[in-house]
Amino acid sequence: MDVAFIDDDDILRAANVQALMLAGLTVAPFASGAAALEAIDAGFPGVVVSDVRMPGMDGLELFRRLRKIDPDLPVILITGHGDIAMAVDAMREGAYDFLAKPYPGERLLGAVRHAREKRRLVLENRELRRRAEAASEDLPLLGETAEMARLRQTLRQLADADVDVLVEGETGSGKEVVANALHRLSRRAARPFVAVNCGALPESVIESELFGHEAGAFTGAMKKRVGRIEHAHGGTLFLDEIEAMSPALQVKLLRVLEAREITPLGTNEVRRVDIRVVAAAKINLQALVRQGSFREDLYYRLHVATLHLPPLRERRADVALLFGHFLALACTRFQREPVQIGESVRRHLDTHDWPGNVRELVHYAERVALGLVANPVPPTGSGDRAPLPERMEAFEAGEIRAALAESCGDVQAAVKALGIPRKTFYDKLRRHGIDQAAYRTGRPGAQ
Question: Which residues, 6+ apart, have CB-to-CB distance to 260 below 8 Å?
């Protein structure tokens, strides 16, 4: 939604809504501020335009109520000449702009377009902050094994190379997390990251979803739709399960990759797109090429840079580290006390093959946190437990790893959380054989 337009005058409201829609904007009309409030929340993606003089809740009260919902929501006020001083005061409070009646249609359209661009930037920055705060959950990239160290190094090398990338890995191994990391670490980080699951979209709609369509392009196409490829302009397009793409669509994708151009359904207009494509496959694409079910030219176009994600069973040394952090996150999310791990859970972590990879490990940690997994813990003094010094060493190492994971490898934050001097911290890292650099991947821009 581009604009919420509020005016109690039916004729003026209809005329302004029509003008905005003719300019290609999507508009939601409201006859009162109360009705608009019911439809607008902090995630509203557009601009609010409201008359000041309205019965019941006037435009100024609506503006102040909206400020409490989201201080960054652009609100444009429409005023009569006698209300200009009032509108100026509202701008000092944070209103985006005001229009004095009568105003030309170009003035309204220009104000809305500028406000919409500001709103887009605000929401994109919020999404970046959200991803940064959630970065510690990107734990398919966390690990101390050589495989993960190589993967992190390759990610940093590719991030700003701006080449298309193919990511191969089993289900649940973290392919979208890797694609997201490439996006966050690149110069495209402030632009959209658009994910498309090629295997989840029906064949009848996937072309429209990717390329978009004009109104009337086919039965049911009531209005223009911007496709996912065009929406990713300036950013990254992630195509998951690309092996499920039909041969006909593979041809069209190949043209996008080669020419960086699209032609939406229902038009002959060619549009340039600036995108980076990250494609993911859960099976070996080269084998599909040999079978004739995947185009060889498309494969080699994507094969410029390929990342292979190792399954969890091939990096068992990382399982306990990942599980410990997922368990801590789950206990926090479910508001449960920290869980002490019993021998049966430890044995499962060591011996299970994890066919669902990291995704399966996350769900297992959640079940342990909720008490849905049998987890008998030997009582104090049990002969099955390790000697006290060994348990203290293991506990200390676990606390250090947890602090590093929570801070995404930030030494200053980890030292503060642990309450120990920096020199002592580094001494303990050496004693426990912990690689602090391995925890930096969750922090956007970490080198």
Answer: 272, 273, 274, 275
The residues, any chain, with a CB within 8 Å of residue 127's CB and separated by 6 or more, are: none
Cβ distance 218 to 176 under 8 Å?
Answer: no
DSSP 3-state helix, strand, coil percentages of the chain (rounded to 5)?
A: 50, 10, 35
Give the strand pairing for 3-6 and 27-30: parallel
- Give the start-end residues of each E strand in 124-245: 165-168, 193-197, 236-240
Residue 401 backbone phi and psi in degrees, to 5: -60, -40
User: pLDDT tens for residues 374-407?
Assistant: 776 554 444 444 555 666 677 777 788 778 877 7
Alpha-carbon torsion 413, 414, 418, 420, what sign? negative
How far is 1 from 5, CA to CA, in rounded Å? 11
pTM, two decimals, is: 0.54
CA 153 to chain centre: 22
Task: Name beta bridge partners: 430.
Answer: none
Closest by CA position to 151, among listed 141, 162, 161: 141
